[in-house]
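--- STAGE predict ---
source: upstream dedup step, 1 unique chain passed
mode: sequence only
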Amino acid sequence: MPKNFEIKCRIRNLSEIKKILVSDRSYKYSIEKQKDIYYKVKSGRLKLRIINEKNSDLIYYNRKEKNRERVSNFVISSTINFKELNFIMTEQFEVMVIVNKKREIFVKDNIRIHLDTVNKLGKFLEIEIMFKDLKKAKKLMEELKDLLRLNPKDFIKSSYSDLLINKK
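--- STAGE serialize ---
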């Protein structure tokens, strides 16, 4: 199962962070409209991510939500038949919550940086580093946090799904 080392934080300076990332031309940039449908499962998290109403990924992941910096184990299966897949999933699992967001994505090597505008929640940044060596991933994360001038007080442990559920 692939692993990534990740952080998530609220951001107030979206334009400054975006300017830093855009100035580094080695990042590949894209924008997606994402709808994440979370299903109630016995362990971990399971969501169907519908991307730009064209294709989707069924994503299972498991991580400890105790730390603000954490390791996530995940599996992704892609499909273009998201309506059929959602029908099957909702027949078998209760829908827990739906998260809608605009995601600006910056990718370089094993690094994914997301600038998210999440409906009903606000603006966030996520950094995900795919890794084989956790020590190297942690060092790289420190460099990125410094580069983007992130404030550790803004880091959060919760997923968007938890934030929306707790908001209700």
